[in-house]
Amino acid sequence: MSRMTDTIATGAVPVPATRVGRGHLRVFLGATPGSGKTFAMLREAHDRRSQGEDIVVGYVETHGRKLTEQAIGSLEVIPRLEVDYRGKVMEEMDLDSVLARHPQVVLVDELAHTNVPGVRHVKRYEDVEDILDAGIDVITTVNVQHLESVKDLAEHITGIPVRETLPDHVLDNADEIQFIDISPEALRKRMRHGNIYAPEKVDTALANFFRPGNLAALREIALRLVAQTVGRARGAIRPAPESVLVAVNGRQHSGTLIRRASRLARRFGGFCTVLVVMGRHDDAADAGRTKSKELAELLQCGYIEREGRVPDTVIAVAQELAVQHVVIGQTSHPGVRGRLHRGLVDRLITQLPDVSVHVIARPAALHRDLPIAANDQRPDSDMLLRALHASAIRSGLRVYLGYARGCGTTVAMLDEANRRRQRGTDVVVAAVKTDGRARCEVALGELEVLGGPNAPARDGIVDVEALLRRNPEVACLDDLAGVDTQGRPITDAVPRLLRAGMMLVGTLHLTDLRSTVDGMGAMLGARPANVVDDAFLDEVTELEIVDITPSLLDERLRRGEIIPASEAALARAQAFRPEVLASLREMAFRILAEHTDRRLVAYMRDRGIESPWEVKPRVMLGVPPRPGMEDVIASTAALAARLDGKMTAVTVRDRKRSAQEMQLLGAYAALTHQADGTFVTLYERDPASALTHCARKILATEIVVTRGRGRRGTLRKMIRLLTDVDIHVLPTPHDDTLG
Q: What angle do CA 562, 563, 565 make, to 5 degrees?
């Protein structure tokens, strides 16, 4: 079975190729519990067994979900190991039995799980390592919040501790990573239907971890992570790597700083080093340093301990390692300690002129979503379900996005239609084109097709008037790049159908989107007959990607499951070339991440949440009306692009501008817009207060400034005023201009 390797790079040296004889690791990655990872893993297991592979269940956690139990079906299950722990019998995967059975493939659920004391390894991923070393392939599952590098970020967003984590290098070594997507709206519906938790736990879950903002934020983190992974795996051209030094004292917030620096190093493709400046020697300090060292090892960071004055030590180590970035934390202490910290920032800015200095903001009090229940007494589950059902959106546009033909969008749409029909919803398939593909025909099953089996709907053509007369609760529209019976684009009819109160479930291929067609051109082969404008995505209520790795897509192509086998050779030379598929897949993840981000920001503003979440970097640059800012704007735009973020350039008009200054600002605004950024003019006398207010308004995650003696007072005031917004001081430019 051929596979295309996907890796998540750390800031460390590249991971060597998989050893001969070692098993392959395939990971189903989800953003949240309940996304369907285990179900997808079991479905693949049945498919692979039907193709003759020897596959067993090493450990699958059903959590009492009937659908998951049914999905195991007739798969061979290795009996679990029973371990007596504190008077209770606990069950774990029987590693020795798996190794003795030695199948071709073993399923191992919940990769971040911590084993009960008394078994061979502390963590389940260590069990998996033994299985892989034995030459057995492993298919496993994990949620993004369990990755060590994003643990603090997930906790900050959700306000809920992450008890179990997984070193990022475990995913670095994965041969394949497939993302199992579900929109926040769909996940909450799944929760209401009792498919995730027992009824008595639904209200607590929906009011806490499963709040819409949490789900959207975690989803966006996962989408951007996978997009970066795919980009690196396909060998995309990237700037030279940049290394990071993070200085900590080993106390309470050191873990947060280390993780932030590790994420920064990942984005810059460089190596992260943790520097602990030794202070007092007592049990608490020694324990803190031990934790910092352990975390650095988990994140594959370098680790250095030094004694001495903090500024001198940080500067000396930064110069020794020739790093491009230094990360320090922001103090919340007044008085002498606060002044000493400000002195550290000043020293770093002065004595490391060629290094970016990042002052990581102190966290504000968590501004979490309000619970659904406004009073102290929670409603019972039945009451909550009725309230949620009553408030559910009756119409909307839900779209399954595939990055290429054959990803499975049609099957996903029809599967949803069947689930809705089984719950008593009036569903009609208004357009579908199966081309005789067995999977699609099976999924179509007994669903009602608009107009019957010989109607235009069976050829993927929508009869809009007939659909309006039929007026179902849910209408399925396969391939939104298609046309209606009058030859008009289906997308033109969508607003009218939504106004009629229908819920529309459709499919869309990235290769039919205008930006993709215009950007990739001849690489995709012949231009499609109909192209969908990117602006149409703004009308989409829920957008989900149906992900599949390029290697599995290629297998479907070779088996004739996508197009006739006679056309496969040409397709593999054009749109189905591995490098083209990898580019399309990365593009699809980024498009979906942007769509998720727009909805998340709207949600946060509706809820009055002003503290930014480090989900999408939002870089704000202060731009004064001085000559020489062109390079600063260009470099900041490049920084935002490299971070997969957005740039906003801001100028503060605290007095009347001269004609020359107005001309400069006009040129800077034009340059900002050319770089796909936003230019904002503020009218206030106090630049620090104006920039601080603007940062909160646009949910900026960092403010970029350049150096200059005359502006350190403004910089100090911003550091004092801001929480949850980092200050990034750029290296000294060739002249002394400052933003």
A: 115
DSSP 337-359: HHHHHHHHHHHHHHH-TTSEEEE
The DSSP secondary-structure symbol of 166 reads: B
With beta carbons less than 8 A apart as the criterion, state whether 261 and 300 touch. no
25-233: which CATH architecture? Answer: 3-Layer(aba) Sandwich (3.40)
Q: Find the farthest-apart pair of alpha carbons in the chain and give their distance in angstroms, rounded.
A: 83
DSSP 536-549: GGGG-SEEEEB---
What does the pLDDT read at residue 121? 95
Structure letter (DSSP) for residue 613? -
Render pLDDT for 372-414 as a digit per residue (tens, 0 to 9): 333 333 334 344 334 334 334 457 999 999 999 999 999 999 9
> Sheet holding 474-477: strands in order across?
427-431, 474-477, 503-509, 396-402, 542-545
Measured distance CA(296)–CA(169) in Å, rounded: 12
Q: Do the Cβ atoms of 340 and 366 come closer than 8 Å?
A: no
Q: Map residue 106 onto helix, strand or coil.
A: strand
Q: 395-576 adopts what CATH topology?
A: Rossmann fold (3.40.50)
Model confidence, pTM: 0.83
| Residue 300 contacts residue 11 (beta carbons within 8 Å) | yes
Supply φ then ψ for residue 57, to 5 degrees: -95, 110
In 173-322, alpha helices (H)? 184-192, 199-207, 212-233, 254-268, 283-298, 310-321
Lowest-confidence region among 187-191, 419-423, 551-555: 187-191
Show the tokens assigned to 377. Answer: 């007494």
Residue of 283, 553, 596 lying closest to 404 (CA atoms):
553
What is the distance between the alpha carbons of residues 364 and 467, in angstroms, rounded to a whole number?
Answer: 52
For residues 643 and 530, which has the higher predicted lDDT (pLDDT)? 530
- 707-712: long-range pairs with CB below 8 Å, 24+: 707/349, 707/353, 707/731, 707/732, 707/738, 708/736, 708/737, 708/738, 710/738, 711/738, 712/346, 712/349
Single-letter code of the amino acid located at 427: V
DSSP 641: H
DSSP-assigned letters across all residues of 457-514: GGGT-B-HHHHHHH--SEEEES-TTSBBTTS-BHHHHHHHHHHTTPEEEEEEEGGGBH
Paired tokens of 351 = 């004595």
Query: What phi and psi, each to the nearest 5 degrees, are found at residue 90?
Result: -105, 150
Grouping H, G, I as helix, E, B as strand and the rest as coil, residue 242 is coil
pLDDT at 727 over 60: yes
How many Å apart are CA 404 and CA 516, to the nearest integer?
A: 11
- And the tokens for 309? 């004055």
Structure tokens at 690: 């104006």
Return the pLDDT at 669: 96
- Mean pLDDT in the chain? 85
Q: Are 140 and 45 in contact (CB under 8 A)?
A: no
Residue type, 134: A
The CATH number of 244-360, from 3.40.30.10, 1.10.150.170, 3.40.50.620, 3.40.980.10, is 3.40.50.620
| CATH level 3 topology of 618-729 | Rossmann fold (3.40.50)
CA 257 to chain centre: 20
Scanning 364-489, the segments in alpha helix (DSSP H) are: 381-391, 409-422, 438-444, 464-470
